[in-house]
Write a structure and sequence with these properties.
By secondary structure, the protein is α/β, with parallel strands linked by helices. It has a single domain, classed as Rossmann fold (3-Layer(aba) Sandwich). The protein is built from ten helices and seven strands. Helix 2 runs antiparallel to helix 9. The longest helix is centred in the last third of the chain and has 26 residues.
Length: about 290
């Protein structure tokens, strides 16, 4: 059983809340356009994690045949549970991207999100090209962490960061060692004989409640943001073997921060705090 990622890097719950914060009902058209999803396609996500992307596709494009694979057993167990709850027929398997259990020329779309930076490129790409149909679309997504530009809610932020700074983190793990500039990735795709290689660079502002005209949507943004922070805290607490006093202090601070942000929204006191991701998307055809 492989649980390296969910135990050492990012828990399945944290991965799921983070993806739901960024890809949700309110901005789904943007994501579906990037993923080039349409009816009646056979679609594979490699490195599907919690299954959020694949479940969203199947929810809004039920005629598609959707598959998700990941090397982490905990991720796949979670994805299967979530798809069952939603009554979705998505096929999930624990699979290494270097050895895909599918026939040649099987899929119309093969995509990944934040996977390419963790593997040598040849290991990442060879099997994906094999299982794509001629003319099929490859979609490679990753987040540009260097150019982040956020303005977080400042209430209790110093106190929260102080708790995190005092934790005894375990030794780091080696991930993301194959990050490269997009032009190099595109050159590699060209070397592998892909066609119509294209590049998108988009800022996704997934949290800015004070400019949202629909109050229910604004509240959802605040709630999703809190759930992401809460999941991150739980994962960090588990990894660092935090004592109960520190755990309760951190979770209490996060809850107070969330409640204060909701109070200010309801009082119509605008802060214009925001959070965003810079998304790199490279697409190509076999």
């Amino acid at each position: 059983m492989n649980t390296f990622w969910s135990k050492s890097v990012q828990s399945t719950e944290l991965l799921d809340t983070s993806r739901k914060e960024k890809f949700n009902e309110d901005n789904r058209k943007f994501w579906f356009d990037l993923l080039q999803v349409d009816d009646n396609l056979k679609i594979l996500e490699v490195g599907c994690g919690s299954g959020h992307f694949t479940n969203m596709i199947k929810t809004y494009y039920p005629s598609c045949e959707v598959y998700g694979i990941d090397l982490d057993d905990n991720h796949i167990k979670f994805a299967k549970r979530e798809s069952k709850k939603l009554n979705l027929d998505v096929q999930y398997q624990v699979v290494d991207v270097k050895h895909l259990p599918f026939e040649d020329d099987a899929f119309d779309v093969v995509f990944s999100h934040t996977l390419v930076e963790h593997l040598p490129f040849d290991d990442f790409i060879k099997e994906q090209k094999r299982v794509l149909k001629p003319g099929g679309k490859l979609i490679v997504m990753r987040v540009d962490m260097v150019k982040k530009n956020d303005k977080p809610f400042s209430f209790l932020e110093d106190e929260i960061n102080e708790v995190y700074a005092g934790l005894n983190y375990p030794k780091g793990v080696s991930v993301g060692q194959y990050v490269e500039d997009p032009d190099l990735t595109m050159r590699r795709l060209d070397e592998h004989k892909f066609k119509n290689i294209k590049f998108n660079y988009d800022r996704i502002i997934f949290y800015m409640p004070d400019v949202e005209p629909n109050k229910e949507v604004a509240i959802k943004q605040i709630e999703r943001n809190y759930q992401t922070k809460f999941s991150n805290a739980l994962f960090t607490i588990d990894r660092c073997k935090v004592d109960d006093e520190t755990k309760n202090k951190l979770l209490g601070l996060l809850k107070r921060q969330y409640e204060e942000r909701l109070r200010l929204l309801n009082a119509n006191k605008k802060l214009f705090d925001f959070q965003s991701s810079l998304l790199i998307t490279i697409s190509a055809e076999k």
